[in-house]
Design brief:
Helix content: 25-40%
Shape: globular
Structural class: alpha/beta
Radius of gyration: 17 Å
Strand order of the largest sheet: 1-2-3-7-6
Distance between the termini: 17 Å
Order of helices and strands: HHHEHHEHEEEHHEHEH
Number of domains: 1
Number of helices: 10
Number of strands: 7
Largest sheet: 5 strands, parallel
Length: 254
Protein backbone atom coordinates (compact mmCIF):
# COMPACT_ATOMS: atom_id res chain seq x y z
CA UNK A 1 0.00 0.00 0.00
CA UNK A 2 1.29 3.46 -0.91
CA UNK A 3 0.84 5.40 2.32
CA UNK A 4 1.85 8.71 0.75
CA UNK A 5 -0.94 8.39 -1.82
CA UNK A 6 -3.41 7.51 0.92
CA UNK A 7 -2.36 10.64 2.80
CA UNK A 8 -2.93 12.76 -0.30
CA UNK A 9 -6.40 11.27 -0.68
CA UNK A 10 -7.24 12.05 2.93
CA UNK A 11 -5.97 15.62 2.63
CA UNK A 12 -8.04 16.20 -0.50
CA UNK A 13 -11.19 14.93 1.17
CA UNK A 14 -10.61 16.98 4.32
CA UNK A 15 -10.05 20.10 2.24
CA UNK A 16 -13.26 19.41 0.29
CA UNK A 17 -15.58 19.09 3.26
CA UNK A 18 -13.91 21.78 5.34
CA UNK A 19 -13.99 24.38 2.58
CA UNK A 20 -17.55 23.41 1.60
CA UNK A 21 -18.88 24.43 5.02
CA UNK A 22 -16.14 26.71 6.37
CA UNK A 23 -16.51 25.01 9.74
CA UNK A 24 -13.76 23.91 12.07
CA UNK A 25 -9.98 23.91 11.88
CA UNK A 26 -8.46 22.82 8.60
CA UNK A 27 -4.81 23.45 9.53
CA UNK A 28 -5.02 21.33 12.68
CA UNK A 29 -6.46 18.43 10.72
CA UNK A 30 -3.81 18.56 7.99
CA UNK A 31 -0.88 18.29 10.40
CA UNK A 32 -1.87 14.89 11.84
CA UNK A 33 -2.98 13.09 8.67
CA UNK A 34 0.28 11.20 8.13
CA UNK A 35 0.14 9.98 11.73
CA UNK A 36 -3.43 8.73 11.22
CA UNK A 37 -2.61 7.09 7.90
CA UNK A 38 0.29 5.28 9.56
CA UNK A 39 -1.88 4.04 12.41
CA UNK A 40 -4.86 2.97 10.33
CA UNK A 41 -3.24 1.61 7.17
CA UNK A 42 0.28 0.45 7.98
CA UNK A 43 -0.09 -3.16 9.13
CA UNK A 44 3.39 -3.04 10.66
CA UNK A 45 2.32 -0.63 13.39
CA UNK A 46 0.85 -2.11 16.58
CA UNK A 47 -2.41 -0.19 16.25
CA UNK A 48 -5.43 -2.17 15.04
CA UNK A 49 -8.47 -0.02 14.25
CA UNK A 50 -10.76 -3.01 14.83
CA UNK A 51 -9.42 -3.71 18.34
CA UNK A 52 -7.73 -0.56 19.64
CA UNK A 53 -8.98 2.94 20.35
CA UNK A 54 -7.82 6.34 19.11
CA UNK A 55 -8.80 9.49 20.98
CA UNK A 56 -8.07 13.16 20.42
CA UNK A 57 -7.03 15.75 22.93
CA UNK A 58 -6.91 18.20 20.02
CA UNK A 59 -10.44 17.29 18.97
CA UNK A 60 -10.49 20.16 16.47
CA UNK A 61 -8.08 18.05 14.38
CA UNK A 62 -10.12 14.87 14.76
CA UNK A 63 -12.13 15.29 11.53
CA UNK A 64 -8.92 14.32 9.74
CA UNK A 65 -9.99 10.75 10.49
CA UNK A 66 -13.36 11.02 8.75
CA UNK A 67 -12.15 10.15 5.22
CA UNK A 68 -10.15 7.24 6.66
CA UNK A 69 -13.13 5.85 8.55
CA UNK A 70 -15.27 6.20 5.43
CA UNK A 71 -12.61 4.45 3.35
CA UNK A 72 -12.51 1.60 5.86
CA UNK A 73 -16.27 1.17 5.76
CA UNK A 74 -17.35 2.61 9.10
CA UNK A 75 -19.89 4.76 7.30
CA UNK A 76 -20.81 5.78 3.76
CA UNK A 77 -18.43 8.07 1.88
CA UNK A 78 -21.49 10.19 1.08
CA UNK A 79 -21.42 11.34 4.70
CA UNK A 80 -18.29 13.40 3.97
CA UNK A 81 -20.45 15.73 1.86
CA UNK A 82 -22.82 16.19 4.82
CA UNK A 83 -20.13 17.30 7.28
CA UNK A 84 -21.71 19.71 9.79
CA UNK A 85 -24.93 19.71 7.80
CA UNK A 86 -28.49 18.70 8.81
CA UNK A 87 -29.03 15.00 8.32
CA UNK A 88 -25.32 14.13 8.39
CA UNK A 89 -23.59 12.15 11.12
CA UNK A 90 -20.20 13.90 10.95
CA UNK A 91 -19.86 16.67 13.49
CA UNK A 92 -17.42 19.50 14.10
CA UNK A 93 -15.52 17.24 16.53
CA UNK A 94 -15.58 13.43 16.65
CA UNK A 95 -17.93 11.93 19.21
CA UNK A 96 -19.27 8.51 20.19
CA UNK A 97 -22.29 8.83 17.90
CA UNK A 98 -19.94 8.51 14.90
CA UNK A 99 -18.88 4.95 14.04
CA UNK A 100 -15.16 4.51 14.74
CA UNK A 101 -14.97 7.44 17.17
CA UNK A 102 -14.77 7.10 20.93
CA UNK A 103 -14.78 10.48 22.64
CA UNK A 104 -16.19 13.95 22.21
CA UNK A 105 -13.54 16.57 22.90
CA UNK A 106 -13.46 20.32 22.73
CA UNK A 107 -12.04 21.62 25.97
CA UNK A 108 -8.31 21.08 25.71
CA UNK A 109 -6.72 19.00 28.45
CA UNK A 110 -9.78 16.84 29.12
CA UNK A 111 -9.12 13.83 26.88
CA UNK A 112 -5.96 12.68 28.62
CA UNK A 113 -7.73 12.13 31.94
CA UNK A 114 -10.55 10.28 30.18
CA UNK A 115 -8.02 8.17 28.25
CA UNK A 116 -6.07 7.41 31.42
CA UNK A 117 -9.25 6.21 33.10
CA UNK A 118 -10.09 3.94 30.18
CA UNK A 119 -6.56 2.53 30.07
CA UNK A 120 -6.57 1.92 33.82
CA UNK A 121 -9.94 0.15 33.75
CA UNK A 122 -9.24 -1.88 30.58
CA UNK A 123 -5.64 -3.07 30.77
CA UNK A 124 -6.24 -5.59 27.99
CA UNK A 125 -7.08 -2.87 25.45
CA UNK A 126 -4.73 -0.42 23.72
CA UNK A 127 -5.39 3.31 23.57
CA UNK A 128 -3.67 5.98 21.51
CA UNK A 129 -4.17 9.64 22.38
CA UNK A 130 -3.20 12.54 20.12
CA UNK A 131 -2.44 15.77 21.95
CA UNK A 132 -1.77 19.19 20.48
CA UNK A 133 1.46 20.83 21.60
CA UNK A 134 -0.26 24.08 22.66
CA UNK A 135 -2.69 21.84 24.55
CA UNK A 136 0.22 21.08 26.87
CA UNK A 137 -0.37 24.48 28.48
CA UNK A 138 -3.27 22.85 30.34
CA UNK A 139 -2.43 21.80 33.89
CA UNK A 140 -4.69 18.76 33.66
CA UNK A 141 -2.22 17.27 31.18
CA UNK A 142 0.54 17.12 33.76
CA UNK A 143 -1.75 15.90 36.53
CA UNK A 144 -2.79 13.01 34.30
CA UNK A 145 0.81 12.20 33.43
CA UNK A 146 1.47 11.61 37.12
CA UNK A 147 -1.44 9.15 37.20
CA UNK A 148 -0.38 7.36 34.01
CA UNK A 149 3.19 7.00 35.20
CA UNK A 150 2.24 5.88 38.71
CA UNK A 151 -0.05 3.13 37.43
CA UNK A 152 2.34 2.22 34.59
CA UNK A 153 -0.35 2.43 31.95
CA UNK A 154 1.69 0.96 29.12
CA UNK A 155 -1.52 0.40 27.13
CA UNK A 156 -1.89 4.17 26.59
CA UNK A 157 0.43 5.70 23.99
CA UNK A 158 0.50 9.49 23.79
CA UNK A 159 1.39 11.16 20.49
CA UNK A 160 2.08 14.90 20.61
CA UNK A 161 1.40 16.81 17.39
CA UNK A 162 4.45 19.06 17.72
CA UNK A 163 3.76 21.59 14.97
CA UNK A 164 5.06 24.46 17.08
CA UNK A 165 2.02 26.68 16.62
CA UNK A 166 -0.99 27.54 18.72
CA UNK A 167 -3.88 29.75 17.77
CA UNK A 168 -1.94 32.89 18.74
CA UNK A 169 1.47 32.04 17.32
CA UNK A 170 4.63 30.05 18.04
CA UNK A 171 4.50 27.96 21.19
CA UNK A 172 8.07 28.83 22.13
CA UNK A 173 7.24 32.54 22.07
CA UNK A 174 3.84 32.27 23.74
CA UNK A 175 4.88 29.99 26.61
CA UNK A 176 8.00 27.91 26.13
CA UNK A 177 7.53 24.13 26.19
CA UNK A 178 11.10 23.01 25.60
CA UNK A 179 12.92 20.95 26.68
CA UNK A 180 9.79 18.88 26.09
CA UNK A 181 11.40 15.44 25.81
CA UNK A 182 13.14 15.84 29.15
CA UNK A 183 9.94 17.02 30.80
CA UNK A 184 8.07 13.88 29.79
CA UNK A 185 11.04 11.74 30.79
CA UNK A 186 11.04 13.34 34.23
CA UNK A 187 7.53 11.96 34.70
CA UNK A 188 8.80 8.44 34.00
CA UNK A 189 7.90 8.08 30.31
CA UNK A 190 9.92 6.60 27.50
CA UNK A 191 10.00 9.31 24.84
CA UNK A 192 10.69 9.20 21.09
CA UNK A 193 11.10 12.30 18.94
CA UNK A 194 10.37 11.69 15.27
CA UNK A 195 9.36 13.32 12.00
CA UNK A 196 5.57 13.03 12.06
CA UNK A 197 5.41 13.02 8.26
CA UNK A 198 7.96 10.22 7.75
CA UNK A 199 6.16 6.89 7.36
CA UNK A 200 9.34 4.91 8.00
CA UNK A 201 9.96 6.76 11.25
CA UNK A 202 6.34 6.33 12.30
CA UNK A 203 6.44 2.62 11.49
CA UNK A 204 9.67 2.08 13.38
CA UNK A 205 8.41 3.94 16.45
CA UNK A 206 4.94 2.41 16.47
CA UNK A 207 5.90 -1.13 15.43
CA UNK A 208 5.69 -2.75 18.84
CA UNK A 209 3.21 -2.42 21.65
CA UNK A 210 4.91 -0.36 24.36
CA UNK A 211 6.07 -2.17 27.48
CA UNK A 212 6.21 1.07 29.50
CA UNK A 213 4.26 4.37 29.45
CA UNK A 214 5.25 6.00 26.17
CA UNK A 215 5.16 9.44 24.58
CA UNK A 216 5.90 10.06 20.90
CA UNK A 217 6.74 13.67 20.05
CA UNK A 218 5.90 13.89 16.35
CA UNK A 219 7.41 16.98 14.73
CA UNK A 220 4.87 18.11 12.15
CA UNK A 221 4.02 21.03 9.89
CA UNK A 222 0.80 22.87 10.51
CA UNK A 223 -1.36 22.84 7.34
CA UNK A 224 0.92 20.17 5.85
CA UNK A 225 0.27 19.74 2.12
CA UNK A 226 -0.94 23.26 1.35
CA UNK A 227 2.16 25.33 0.62
CA UNK A 228 0.78 28.81 1.17
CA UNK A 229 -0.76 27.80 4.52
CA UNK A 230 2.12 25.80 5.98
CA UNK A 231 3.61 27.02 9.27
CA UNK A 232 1.39 30.10 9.42
CA UNK A 233 -0.51 30.56 12.68
CA UNK A 234 -3.26 32.71 11.13
CA UNK A 235 -4.60 29.68 9.25
CA UNK A 236 -5.42 27.96 12.54
CA UNK A 237 -8.94 29.32 12.16
CA UNK A 238 -8.98 30.65 8.58
CA UNK A 239 -10.32 28.31 5.89
CA UNK A 240 -9.88 29.43 2.25
CA UNK A 241 -13.11 30.36 0.46
CA UNK A 242 -11.98 31.39 -3.02
CA UNK A 243 -13.02 28.61 -5.48
CA UNK A 244 -9.88 29.09 -7.57
CA UNK A 245 -7.64 28.81 -4.52
CA UNK A 246 -9.45 25.68 -3.37
CA UNK A 247 -9.17 24.14 -6.85
CA UNK A 248 -5.42 24.79 -6.81
CA UNK A 249 -5.08 23.25 -3.35
CA UNK A 250 -6.73 20.07 -4.59
CA UNK A 251 -4.70 20.06 -7.80
CA UNK A 252 -1.46 20.29 -5.84
CA UNK A 253 -2.41 17.17 -3.92
CA UNK A 254 -2.98 14.95 -6.97
Amino acid sequence: MNLAEKAKMVRREVIKFKTATGNGHLASSLSIIDILVSLYYDEKTFFSHTNDFLLYGKAHGGPAAYPILADLGYFSKDELEKYCRPGGILRLHPDQSIPGCEFVGGSLGNAIGYSAGLAWANRHKNYVLILGDAELYEGSIWESLIFISHFQLKNLTIIVDRNGLGILGETEKLLRLEPLKQKFESFGFTVSVIDGHDFDALRSTLADKPSVPTVVIANTIKSKGVDFMENKAEFHTIIPKDPQVIAQMLEDLK
